[in-house]
Specification:
Chain lengths: 114, 114
């Protein structure tokens, strides 16, 4: 069965510091992987996705993630945090033959302090 | 262009009443998904439509939940005899047909069952 684990329900960083949000997946078939962001009282917005092309994926707002098959990981990074990055981040997986339905991790709430 | 819209944005109902939640997908998107976001269960898949048919209803939690889609466009999620555990934010997403296409999410309907 496919599943997603996000390590750390809350992450706090200083403005300008590196952001690292961890995501590990379990899948019996090659997965597609996604990171979504949810700002307060808003819907989900796609940051980036991996669909079996380049393993290093660049997304919006300088976020990027690297697919590491050997580690079954898809961690999200950003070199320098902005106050506006404070939000909840969700890692998700879908898989061929699964109608593209997304299986989400529990989410990580990112706080950015001055 | 217009994004995914959902109505109502908020719905408060009494236990035992029926509710209908509406989703208008992005024009031309053939795939439509319903998800539920709750404190206890996180983000979970409910149902997937391709056109007007629903090949995957595996996420519907009970037979009190049903959904339909008409004209390959608007979808309605109906919850009969609502229970307090149905309180959640119900999210709708749409995408083009192919499996790796991005799902675009609506702002959600917050359902509160008293």
């Amino acid at each position: 069965a496919q599943s997603v684990t996000q390590l750390g329900s809350h992450v706090s960083v200083s403005e300008g510091a590196l952001v690292l949000l961890r995501c590990n997946y379990s899948s019996s078939v090659p997965p597609y992987l996604f990171w979504y962001v949810q700002y307060p009282n808003q819907g989900l917005q796609l940051l980036l996705k991996y669909t079996s092309a380049a393993t290093l994926v660049k997304g919006i707002n300088d976020f990027e993630a690297e697919f590491k098959k050997s580690e079954t990981s898809f961690h999200l990074t950003k070199p320098s945090a902005h106050m506006s990055d404070a939000a909840e981040y969700f890692c998700a997986v879908s898989f061929p033959g699964g109608y593209n339905k997304l299986i989400f991790g529990a989410g990580t709430r990112l706080a950015v302090h001055p | 262009g217009a994004g995914v819209s959902q109505s109502p944005s908020n719905k408060v109902t009494e236990k035992g009443k029926d509710v209908e939640l509406r989703c208008d997908p992005i024009s031309g998107h053939t795939a439509l998904y319903w998800y539920r976001q709750s404190l206890g269960q996180g983000l979970e898949f409910l149902i997937y439509f391709q056109g007007n048919s629903a090949p995957d209803k595996s996420g519907l939690p009970s037979d009190r939940f049903s959904a339909e889609r008409t004209g390959g466009s608007v979808s309605t999620l109906t919850i009969q005899r609502t229970q307090q555990e149905d309180s959640a934010v119900y999210l709708c997403a749409s995408s083009l047909f192919t499996v790796t296409d991005t799902q675009y999410f609506g702002p959600g309907t917050r359902l509160t069952v008293l």
